[in-house]
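#dry-run=false #mode=assembly
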Amino acid sequence: MDAMEVILTRRSVRKYKTKKQLSKESINNLLEAAMSAPSAGNEQPWHFVVIDDPNILSEVPTFHNHAQMLKNASIAILVCGDLNLEKHKDMWIQDCSAATQNLLLAIRAKNLGAVWLGIFPREQRLKGMKKLLNLPEKVIPFSLVSIGNPAEKQEKINRFNPSRVHYNKW
Ligand SMILES: Cc1cc2nc3c(=O)[nH]c(=O)nc-3n(C[C@H](O)[C@H](O)[C@H](O)COP(=O)(O)O)c2cc1C
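#status=ok
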């Protein structure tokens, strides 16, 4: 798959076949893609928590009402912003978004399935994740990426919308 095909056929996958063991090498590959994202002044303010314990995964839906798929996920990766590493105020949000998207694309390229679960800035989800994983105060859980062996086909959807394109002025 070339880069355009990976981008255009990435879909949110919420149904997974039987749990698939992901090798440490494969997980590190995904994290390398995430950490290759651009960041403001190259601040790289992220940390990643790999969750492969099914008991922890099944706790998330108790405080996140759109996260049922985690019960069948192989693993999930929590993308966090570390405010101690921030060089450019509040840019960590954009940096962590870029890292999350890179992660999703790498997952697609490996023919796995994933969905981005929003955590930041929802208060209940922030509190729930912080407590569940015992995160330090200045580490903000940003997004949780649920990953599994896809039971849904990822297909191209054409979302190109010329009415949203402007040249030189509005
Ligand atoms: C910031 C953000 C938060 C999201 N949160 C959730 C979520 O909590 N649960 C979920 O099932 N999908 C979530 N999604 C996935 C979107 O629903 C999905 O990307 C959108 O419907 C478009 O579909 P596609 O990803 O297949 O292109 C989230 C996506 C983004 C970017």
